[in-house]
Design a protein that fits this description.
This protein is of the alpha+beta class. The chain has one domain. It is built from 3 helices and 7 strands.
Amino acid sequence: MVARSWLVAFDWPEFWNPKVRAAGCMNPQAARSMVPIVLLRSKMVTADRSKAETLSAIKKAFEKGQVPKLESGAMDYMMSKSAYLTDEGEHNGPHLMFLTAGMDAKDWGSGAADSPVMSAPYWFFSSNEPSQIKGLPPILVFLVGVTNWADGAPAGKHDD
């Protein structure tokens, strides 16, 4: 799947960046859990719905059981050289993403000195408004950088 910018945190500054193309390969647990959310978000955004309308639709879909809860073991391989993830600094790097149902980031070593593990909440990077996340299941994404691209080439050794 190639994800677009509107599939990341709603408060990400690059939410509408048309250059973002995040190529990923989900395992079955992630595909069953996340693809219905991806399809709903994409449907709302391409219908020119606002972030607030999109969030409302997602919350209603969860409330009505129209989208599944996150399955244990959900994982996404993000190892394509052709991905473009951000305008900030290096725009890409091969990594694995593990999606969890609201674990504590410290349990995975995220943020610890010299740790290769990074984490971010799926819905909002920093929600100051509790009503924004009410009705959304807690999903925490752990990112672990890997040394090679999917074709085996060492990371950092590709042409843009």
